[in-house]
Amino acid sequence: MYDNLFTPFPLAHGVTAPNRIVMGPMTLNQATESGHITPWIVEWYRRRAAGGIGAIVGAAVFVAQNGRGWPNAVGIADDSYTEGWRECVEAAHANGALFGPQLFHGGASSHESLLGHQPLSSSEWKRGDFDAARAMTEAEIEQAIQDFADGARRSIEAGCDFVELHGAHSYLLHQFWRGDVNHRTDKWGELTAFPAAVTKAVREAIGPDVPLIYRFSVHSDDPAAADNPVTPDSLAEFLHALETAGVDVWDISCWHESRRGYFGTDIWLPDWVKKFSDKPRLVAGNFLTPDNASDYVATGHAEAVALARALISDAEWASKAHRGDEDAIRPYDQAHWKAITMGIDPGA
Length: 348
Prior knowledge:
Layout: E1 9-12, E2 15-17, E3 21-23, H1 39-50, E4 55-62, H2 82-93, E5 98-104, H3 112-115, E6 120-121, E7 134-135, H4 138-157, E8 163-167, H5 172-177, H6 193-206, E9 212-216, H7 232-245, E10 249-253, H8 269-276, E11 281-284, H9 290-298, E12 304-307, H10 309-313, H11 317-322, H12 334-341
Parallel strand pairs: 3-4, 3-12, 4-5, 5-8, 6-7, 8-9, 9-10, 10-11, 11-12
Antiparallel strand pairs: 1-2
Helix pairs in contact: 1-2, 4-6, 6-7, 7-8
């Protein structure tokens, strides 16, 4: 059943996932206070790999202590974190799935009480209920670039098959791309400069043969938000700059709105990307049933789908879909997300 989801998904450089169902990055908040991997997290990943998905993206992995976004998030900020990630990789590989981290810096999306200092961003900016951030110095920007590269290096040392950069949802990489946030007058005021510099540094750290995925979103949190200041032309410029720097695969986050038009048209965001890039598209956006996912790939809107809520509720989602037992899939319920916060895996 749903055979188009269960064909190999070539990422790049000869690295291929066994199918086109990816566990998208999800923040579990089950790490230690310092952000180190716990057995709970390893088992979470093991269950999803055993449940038949092709690849796992480990979510929002902070690359520096000043990039933490919330308590008990996972990190890779120094070499002490590497062994925990190696355990996650081994759990995935033992069950036939690829594994890679989503490297992350929260920037303005944080609190002084967590960081011990004022959050950092491209420019002075206050995001929602987070604490006001100050503009980074040029030296801090250069250090952040190095932090991403070091996180990527540690990921490969842990045995990861690919690396993803989190450039979506108004975290630091996105804060530099947003023209309504980045008001710098130095070279980092060019909106693609920082994302491209991070991408280039990560590519150099992982070498030429490891797939590099970049997650981006046009809007921040609200799927109904205006697309401004992004335009089709600036999207094309952004994609070209990052491809030149080393991106192999686009992870396009549409939140829950993967089936709406962008830029005042009826053209969906992944199809805008296809106009400007021939790189594979992994799309996230409310894929809860096998019909949802299979139809999206079959109609050419994506080469693979990233599942999140569906895999919270049922670790065996992919296996059940593959054998045509979709009626047995446990549907998502908001209570399942709350269960994770209590250390319960609702999909087990």
